[in-house]
Amino acid sequence: MKRVLEICxxxxxxxxxxQAGGAQRIELCQNLEQGGITPSFGLLSQVLxxxxxxxxxxxxxxxxxxxxxxxxxxxxxxxxxxxxEAGCAGVVLGALTPDGHVDLAFCRTLMEAxxxxxxxxxxxxxxxxxxxxxxxxxxxxxxxxxLTSGGEAxxxxxxxxxxxxxKQAADxxxxxxxxxxxxHTIRDxxxxxxxxxxxxxxxxxxxxSNAPFSPMFxxxxxxxxxxxxxxxxxxxxx
Length: 238
Description:
The protein is an alpha/beta fold. The chain is 38% helix and 18% strand. The chain has a single domain (4-237), classed as Copper homeostasis (CutC) domain (TIM Barrel, Alpha-Beta Barrel), CATH 3.20.20. Strands 7-6-5-4-3-2-1-8 form an eight-stranded parallel sheet, with helices on one face. Strands 9-10 form a two-stranded antiparallel sheet. Helix 1 (12-21) runs parallel beside helix 8 and helix 3 runs parallel beside helix 4. It starts with a strand and ends with a helix.
């Protein structure tokens, strides 16, 4: 099966760099330093104009836990509908109950809003109380893939668990390792997990040329580097 690299992009610059480096797909979000939230409609619209590779959009109304009240749920449904109408290739979502299980009732609502769009279940999976059970439930929901670090801080630290999830999935769903996926770690992940889709940020620090003359503002921005993306793609091709 062909290997796929997805780049997590939180700006137009990162999205363009991901495509230039040869990534097959992006996950678009904002506020990546806090785990990512749903991007603005303006960012989404501009990225869709510039990219020819598939754009998946993170559906997460705020940082923090993955248990949502009625108002947050309404926001998420509306955001999915907007993504579908805008022409996105897919959405990335997830929701849990307070005791750490997949919120099946609400996730079904999100899946209905997505319609025919492919769906990735995001790293809410990593804090599920029973990953084996959660995986079966996510498969029944109809998601196409699970983005996961295997319950550890990084995917390289959870290669045995990721391999177990790939075995359990048995080609019913794609297990996509994410977090800590770099040109130095991706080959081991390929060999040791059996996964064929991988998620990375390929970041470098960029100093803004329009940096304000004030210490109140951070002039260093984390952006995807097309050279790092290209190196990741090359590692997957070997």
